[in-house]
Structures are given as C-alpha cells and as structure tokens.
C-alpha cells in the first residue's frame, strides 16, 4: 500500500497542533489548579507534558515513515526538501528514536510514584531534592540507549539499502538517495547471497527488548500493588477528599498506560519482532507511523479530564464554547488544611 506524503503530513501537523495545545493547557492547569496534596507529582506531570511536546516537534521535523519489509524493520526520513546535510538528518532521525526510548521509563516512574504515595511509608522522600534529579535522568538514559542503537547498530549500509530499495519506492515513492534511515536487517545475504542471521543486529534487538521489558515489568507490578492499596484505602476510614483524589489519579494513570500500550508499544513491539521470525506484516505496518505521531497528542487527555479540579478548570477556560455552565466543584478547602502531602 503506497502511503501519501500529503496524508502523512496532515496527520503529523494535526498531532503537533494537538500535542502543543493540550500539553500547554495541562501544564497551566497543573501549575494553577493542582490540589495541594499532589506534591512533587505535579513536577513529574510537567516533565512528562514537556517531553510530549518535544516529541511532537521532533516527529514533525523528521516526518518519519515506520515500516517493515521481510526480515527488516526501519524508520525512514525523506531528504527531498531537507535544507541541511544528510548527516544532520541522520542525527535528527536518531534523536527521534531516542525520544521513543524515554517513554517507557517515564510511565514506569509515574507508577512507582503512585505506589509510594498509596503505600504511606515515607518513601516519597525519594522523589524530592537530589533524588528527583536522579528520577529525571533515568528516562533520559533510556533515550540515550535508543539513540545509541539507531546511530551505531542501525546506520545506513549497502546491504540494507539494497534490501529495502524496492519497498521504499513502492510504498513511499522515494529513491534511496533521497532518504536517511535507521534499519535492522536480521538476515542480510552473505557473499553467496544466502540470508544469514546477523548476531550484531540480534544483540541490538535484545537490548531494545530489555529496555521495553524492564519498565513494563515495573508498570505491571506497581500497578497491581497500587490497585490493592486503592481498594484498602476506599474500604477503610480515609477522608473522602483523599480517597477521591487518589482514585482519580490512579484511573488517569491506568488510562495513560493503555494509550502508550496500544498506540506505541504494541505496534512497535510487533514491528520489531515480526521480521526476526519471518512474519510478513508489511501490508499494515504503515499504521505504526500514524500511531507513533498520535501518541504525544492524546497522552495529556486522561489526567486533564479524570482529575476533577483540572476537568472543571478546563471547562471554565472553554466555557464560551459550551451551551451550559459546568457544575461547580464542592468547596474542599477544609479538606486541604491539615492534609499530609501525598
């Protein structure tokens, strides 16, 4: 299936606009409307929203096509109208790959914070001061890892270029001298033209898989433990405001997990793995391009609409477009006082 450059541009422009709009609104709401009990979770959310905007900007600059062909997966960038050198294009493409590596660790850190907040054992002290800087560095290191894979393992080479040449022309209307790419060809032909498993690429796949599996394991374990804590909190004598806020934040986090799972990790996981096992997914792999671009735009929506303070403030901002006024929030000021920061 040939992918239209115009359609790709429309999707990515729309995603960039929505990502900047929604994340900017969310940052404003976090700064001005956050419950006092949210503590340093506000800082984490601002960090996440800022990353999402940068992700969308880089994605718009690169305007990548993500694809699978036979025993190869790749992200390719057109340099037809690129004003700089191919080397700079390759760097920017690898930076976009790096942003993909930041995402799973950001999500995992959110779940760890939520569990510590529900656990009530004083472990939130590890999300303040110098410790907070360490938490901020972990996703960046995850991004550096993916950048390193793109730059050192998946760089352009003659065998890969010849292998994907026909597919790139057929699906994207691009000649290889008009592109830069990051690609993993699992079975390049040897000197006799016989496909052989490339152990170097297999190693890179193992590194890639571990960098996704570790955050997901944390997510599952912390999520299950948080669910158990939420049930106990609801069943026992916590103040209504605390129970409501914790439940809203947990629901938002669950939705924020499903979004990257279905828009990011599942499609990319299949894309990365299928070529290794000779599974041909070329006919639908173009969908990954759009899902990859869409993710930063929709990520802020759960927290914006599930947390009551943010939802009502959002409705007030856009009240002129509504037919009726939003319901007023019950005065919770007495609940804010004397409340321990979560």
Automatic annotation (TrEMBL):
Keywords: Cell membrane, Cell projection, Chemotaxis, Cilium, Glycoprotein, Membrane, Olfaction, Receptor, Sensory transduction, Transmembrane, Transmembrane helix
InterPro entries: 7TM_GPCR_serpentine_rcpt_Str
Record bears the keyword Glycoprotein: yes
Subunit structure: Interacts with odr-4.
GO MF terms held by the record: G protein-coupled olfactory receptor activity
One example of a Gene Ontology biological process annotation: chemotaxis
Record family assignment: Belongs to the nematode receptor-like protein str family.
Species for this entry: Caenorhabditis remanei
Membrane topology: Multi-pass membrane protein
SUPFAM superfamilies: Family A G protein-coupled receptor-like
Subcellular location: Cell projection, Cilium membrane
GO cellular component: ciliary membrane
Major localization class: membrane
Keyword presence, Magnesium: no
Descriptive protein name: Serpentine receptor class r-10
Bilayer-crossing regions: 7-31, 43-66, 87-113, 133-154, 199-225, 253-277, 289-307
Function: An odorant receptor which affects chemotaxis to the volatile odorant diacetyl. Specifies AWA neuronal cell fate via the odr-7 pathway.
């Amino acid at each position: 299936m040939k992918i239209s450059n115009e359609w790709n541009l429309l999707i990515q422009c729309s995603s960039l606009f929505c990502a900047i709009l929604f994340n900017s609104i969310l940052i404003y709401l976090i700064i001005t409307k956050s419950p006092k009990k949210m503590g340093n979770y506000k800082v984490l959310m601002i960090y996440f929203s800022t990353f999402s905007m940068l992700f969308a900007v880089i994605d718009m600059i690169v305007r990548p096509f993500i694809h699978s062909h036979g025993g190869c997966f790749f992200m390719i960038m057109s340099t037809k109208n690129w004003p700089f050198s191919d080397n700079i294009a390759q760097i920017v493409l690898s930076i976009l790959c790096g942003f993909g590596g930041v995402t799973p660790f950001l999500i995992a850190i959110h779940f760890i914070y939520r569990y510590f907040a529900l656990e009530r054992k004083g472990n939130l002290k590890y999300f303040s001061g110098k410790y907070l800087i360490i938490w901020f560095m972990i996703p960046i290191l995850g991004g550096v890892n993916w950048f390193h894979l793109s730059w050192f393992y998946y760089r352009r080479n003659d065998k890969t270029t010849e292998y994907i040449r026909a597919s790139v022309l057929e699906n994207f209307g691009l000649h290889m001298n008009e592109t830069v790419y990051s690609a993993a060809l699992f079975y390049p032909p040897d000197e006799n033209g016989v496909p052989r498993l490339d152990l170097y690429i297999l190693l890179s796949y193992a590194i890639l898989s571990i960098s996704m599996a570790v955050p997901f394991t944390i997510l599952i374990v912390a999520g299950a433990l948080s669910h158990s804590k939420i049930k106990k909190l609801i069943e026992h004598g916590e103040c209504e405001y605390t129970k409501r806020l914790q439940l809203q934040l947990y629901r938002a986090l669950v939705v924020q997990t499903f979004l990257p799972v279905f828009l990011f990790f599942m499609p990319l996981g299949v894309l990365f793995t299928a070529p290794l096992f000779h599974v041909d997914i070329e006919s639908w792999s173009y969908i990954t391009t759009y899902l990859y671009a869409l993710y930063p735009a929709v990520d802020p929506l759960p927290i914006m609409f599930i947390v009551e303070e943010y939802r009502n403030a959002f409705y007030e901002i856009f009240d002129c477009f509504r037919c009726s006024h939003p319901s007023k929030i019950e005065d919770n000021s007495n609940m804010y006082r004397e409340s321990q920061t979560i």
